[in-house]
Amino acid sequence: MKIYGDIQSGNCYKIKLLCSLLGVEHEWIHVDIMAGDTTKSEFLKKNPSGKIPLLELEDGRCLSESNAILNYLSVGSELLPSDIFKLAKVQQWQFFEQYSHEPYIAVARFIAKYLGLPDERKAEYEAKQSGGHKALAVMENQLSTSPYLAGDSLTTADISLYGYTHVAHEGGFDLKAYPSVLAWIDRIQKNQNYIGMV
Fold first, then answer.
1. φ, ψ at 117 (rounded to 5°)
2. Structural domain includes residue 163
3. Domain carrying residue 155
4. In this structure, are 43 and 90 located in the same domain?
């Protein structure tokens, strides 16, 4: 299988991390969004939305959206519960990541890291801070009661939120105010098959 992505993107990195944790063999194909790689016709044929990450299976079928890819690759593993309610809890956190976390933390990081915090985007960058801290506070509250977001074991819910949380400081978010989040980050990084964002 092939995975198209940019390792510096949290949404792409979490797929790379999952593949390392589960030993999923794949070919990683770097995509430069700043150079317009996702707007080229050959890429758009695979994913009309023009977004990464993108999973291309050996038979040519493609799957987009990072959390859908995570869950697809995790079926049958310990990272994706088979119990219906536990699975729904994982998905609950993944929806939280896409709607309440990523739009703030990831966007602030993109403006700062990828664009260099240009003057015309500073107001937008600053406006993202309160929403990002609200999301981090929700995570802190949960992680103060359980070692992982969906319970006692690592799931794709954690990988989904780890992608941008562990580099939140690059978007201006100081994690020192969130000790349970920091402890959770440390737990994930101590996994034997952990791979960093390189």
1. 50, 60
2. yes
3. 84-189
4. no
Q: Could you tell me if 18 and 67 lie in one domain? A: yes
Q: Which two structure tokens, joined as six digits, stand for 181?
A: 């989040």
Q: Copy the structure tokens of residue 7.
A: 């390792």
Q: What would the pLDDT profile of 46-99 be if each residue is shown by its tens digit?
A: 999 999 999 999 999 999 999 999 999 999 999 999 999 999 999 999 999 999
Q: Is 28 helix (H, G, I), strand (E, B) or coil?
A: strand
- Shared domain check, 114 and 93: yes
Shared domain for 45 and 70, answered yes or no, is yes
Tell me, what amino acid is at 39?
T
Residue 198 pLDDT class (50, 70, 90 cuts)? confident
Q: Are residues 92 and 173 in the same domain?
A: yes
110 and 182 fall within a common domain:
yes
The tokens for 30 are 């770097």
Which regions of the chain does DSSP assign to beta strands (E)?
2-5, 27-30, 54-56, 62-64
In DSSP terms, which residues pair with 148 in a beta bridge? 151
Show Cβ contacts of residue 158 under 8 Å, excluding neighbours closer than 6 positions.
Answer: 148, 149, 150, 184, 188
Type of residue numbered 181: V
pTM: 0.94
What is the strand order of the sheet 2-5 is part of?
27-30, 2-5, 54-56, 62-64
